[in-house]
Specification:
alpha+beta, 28% helix, 23% strand
Length: 152
C-alpha cells in the first residue's frame, strides 16, 4: 500500500454517481454486512438541496465519506447540520483522512452561516467518541428520547 502523500487525497461533494462506491466501502467496513442501503442513499439524496455529504478519494477511488444533511430542529427552528455517518477505509485509517473530511464539512457550514454540527454517537462507541472530541465536538445539552415499537 503506498503512503498517502499530502494533497493526494481529494475531498469533494458526494454525487449520486458515488452511491455504489459508498455502499461497497460501507460493506467492506461492515465485513460484508452493509450498514447503509440504496434506500438510505435515496433518502440522503446526494447532491440534493439539503445534502452536505462529501467523499474522500485517491486516484479516483473513494476511500472515505461523511454523510450529513441540513435539518431544522427545535422551536424556534434552528438550522443545524446533522452528521449521520463518517467512514474511512480501514486500509487508510490514521492518515488524517477523517480529519480532512470533517474539516471540509466544518468549512462548508462556516461559509453558509450554520453554526452547529450535531452527530449522534452511541454511548458505547468509544473510538468514535474520542475521534470527534479530539476535533472539538462536545456532548450536547439536548437529550434524545426514543419510543420504539414493532411495525407489522
Amino acid at each position: 500500500m503506498s503512503s498517502v502523500k499530502q494533497g493526494a487525497v481529494n475531498i469533494r461533494p458526494m454525487a449520486r454517481s458515488d452511491i455504489d462506491a459508498v455502499l461497497a466501502l460501507d460493506r467492506k467496513f461492515g465485513k460484508g454486512r452493509s450498514l447503509l442501503s440504496h434506500k438510505d442513499m435515496a433518502i440522503i439524496d446526494p447532491g440534493g438541496p439539503l445534502d452536505v455529504s462529501f467523499v474522500a478519494e485517491i486516484d479516483g477511488n473513494i476511500i472515505g465519506f461523511v454523510i450529513s444533511r441540513l435539518a431544522y430542529i427545535m422551536t424556534p427552528f434552528t438550522e443545524v447540520c446533522m452528521l449521520h455517518s463518517i467512514l474511512v477505509d480501514p486500509d487508510y485509517r490514521n492518515r488524517g483522512i477523517g480529519v480532512k473530511l470533517l474539516g471540509k464539512l466544518v468549512g462548508y457550514c462556516q461559509d453558509e452561516g450554520i453554526n452547529t454540527i450535531r452527530m449522534p454517537v452511541e454511548e458505547d462507541n468509544e473510538e468514535l467518541r474520542r475521534f470527534v472530541e479530539r476535533l472539538g465536538f462536545r456532548p450536547s445539552k439536548v437529550v434524545n428520547y426514543d419510543k420504539t415499537f414493532e411495525v407489522e
